[in-house]
Amino acid sequence: MLGEAAYRSPVRSPVRKPRRFYSASPIRGKQELYCASPVRELRSLCKERGLKSSGMKDEIIERLVYDDEVLHHTDAADRAVEAATLKISSFRRNICIVASIIVAVIFNPFILDRIDHSGSMVTSSNLLGRASRLIKRKLSNVRPIIHVGKQQQHQHRGKVIGSRVTARDLAQAYHSIKKEYSNLALTKNAKWKVLSTHSDGSEVSILKHKTDASCPYVRMTSIMPAAVQEVWDFLSLDNWPKTMPKMDPFYEGLTVLGDYKHKGIEMRLARKTLKRIVAFGKRDFTFVSVSDHPRGDGAWVSGTVSVVTDQIPRKKGYTRAFQDSIAFYEPVTDDLGNPATKLTIVFRIDLNDSSDGGNGGFVPMWMYVKTVGSTGMLSVQNMKKQLILMTAEQQADATCELNWVDRLINSSKCEG
């Protein structure tokens, strides 16, 4: 037994100890890999690195290990960053991406335009060059994906209609969206999460659903200080050039493309454009605005749905965005007995072009979800202020229409 142990001990010690030592260092691990590789592969590896390939196997391994040590030390920072990147969560990676966008925009506000219109970028070692490449690599055309069995299909936004727009097609597109809303967002057991509230009772909520987790529903509810007709007119497309800039600071313009009517439903096909959203490009919405039949309880109903048709192609210089909505106008009274409106707007919005032929848009959906509570509440409060101002102006105009005797009695003055 003693002789057997004495015979085995010289063989075990040199094999076990190096293995434990090699596992602690990537360089030692590579050395062990080189030892197990054929000489022919080692010589090919030397030629690829521009090293001398002749000599004994031990010499070749020593040469490769030395080269690995040089590369390891010179690229230590990059390796550490890469290792750390693999460990952070997807949420933190998105923050890093957004930070890179901000850095790029601060140093050069036209960088995104260059990314969009340039097929390649000049290699640069400075911070701006790295940020530019990071944006192009990480924020390329990311499209939402839904799983159907074992296949994956891109989620398309908007309702596709024929190349020749008809009232029937537009009505079908609206009814399709309305049915989706009824089944997913307007049910009693829908699990809404409150994002923002106001002392006046206004509320902004969000609803995520499995059918399209990347595009949640948002609901805004508030009591408006005006009658239903006035609130309806305020949101009418005819008044958008005057009202929308007060509610949406990025609103640029509206073009009405046609009026349609189908079975008592009035529809207007239009294109809305938005200004550049901070670092992101301009947006283009092609949609149909619908005046629907009143609900059973007397509430007025309107809606919008994005449509896709060859008759209205993408606008050059803009990213096609998509939005659909359903709105309810319920007549109520305020604390003083004055007519008011309970306005409920449920909508979905996607600022990225995920359809075929689209150019992405680069806006992370998580950023939209994080900010829609505050931006939605700001829009509601701005709408209230504008309704109050509009009502005051209408009362002033009505007073000025009185004859001179009535103006003397009411002690009113009219300008103009």
Summarize the structure.
The protein is of the alpha+beta class. The chain contains 13 helices and twelve strands.
Unreliable sequence segments = 1-24, 103-125, 138-155
Structural class: alpha+beta
Q: What is the terminal separation in angstroms?
A: 120 Å
How confident overall, as mean pLDDT?
75
Rg from Cα: 32 Å
User: In percent, how helical is the residue content?
Assistant: 40-55%
Count of runs of 4 or more consecutive helical residues: 13
Largest sheet: 10 strands, mixed
Beta-strand portion reads: 15-25%
Order of helices and strands: HHHHHHHHEEEHEEEHHEEEEEEHH
What is the global morphology? elongated
Number of strands: 12
What would you note in describing this structure?
The chain has 13 helices and 12 strands. The N terminus is likely disordered. Helix 2 packs antiparallel against helix 4 and helix 3 crosses helix 4. 45% of the residues lie in helices and 23% in strands. The chain has 416 residues and is of the alpha+beta class. Strand 8 and strand 9 form a beta hairpin. The strands form 2 sheets. Strands 3, 4, 5, 6, 7, 8, 9, 10, 11 and 12 form a 10-stranded mixed sheet that branches. The protein starts with a helix and ends in a 6-residue tail after the last helix.
Highlighted features:
single chain; about 425 residues; alpha+beta; 10-stranded mixed sheet; two-stranded antiparallel sheet; about 25% strand; elongated
What is the topology?
Elements: H1 2-22, H2 26-36, H3 39-49, H4 57-74, H5 76-87, H6 90-107, H7 111-117, H8 127-138, E1 145-148, E2 151-154, E3 159-160, H9 167-184, E4 193-197, E5 203-207, E6 217-224, H10 228-234, H11 240-247, E7 251-262, E8 265-274, E9 282-291, E10 300-308, E11 318-333, E12 339-350, H12 365-400, H13 404-410
Parallel strand pairs: 3-10, 9-11
Antiparallel strand pairs: 1-2, 4-5, 5-6, 6-12, 7-8, 8-9, 9-10, 10-11, 11-12
